[in-house]
Design goal:
alpha+beta, HotDog_dom_sf, 3-hydroxylacyl-ACP dehydratase, ApeP-like_dehydratase
Length: 166
Amino acid sequence: MTDDALPQQMDRSMIEKLLPHKGKMFLQDRITSYDPEANIICTEFDVKEDCIFYDVAAGGIPGWASFEIMAQGISALASIKRILRHDMTPPKSGVVLSVTDFSAAQSVFKKGEVLYMTVSEDCCVGNVYKYFCRLYLDRDKTDLKIQTNISVMEVDDIRGVLENNV
């Protein structure tokens, strides 16, 4: 995907080119907007049974799993920024270092609900980034259900990091 093929709004098939996640682990359905200068992205995810986190007994996705939806929003923003910089190197892997200040007003997101998410980069030191993430149940983003901070470290070789630190 080149920068001249990067519309402000993207559907799932376009996002699949930005993220390494596949199948049941793919947790982004639409990008509704992004601003690489302000380091913000807005995405949507439709709660459905084919999600890896779907709990049949609960009839939806547990709220704690939203951090992975948010992490994939972070990954999409990083990919967009890389493409807009004309950086043709392979995307770096992101390792979640921490999820802090997690606040949830809803414990389960039911099948059929749409999750509206905003991710904004709060700060960056070297290859470590901190994002403020918010998840809503309405397009106007007035019905806040989850907010948290996620810290991520970009690494060139995830296998090397795991082999040397596990």
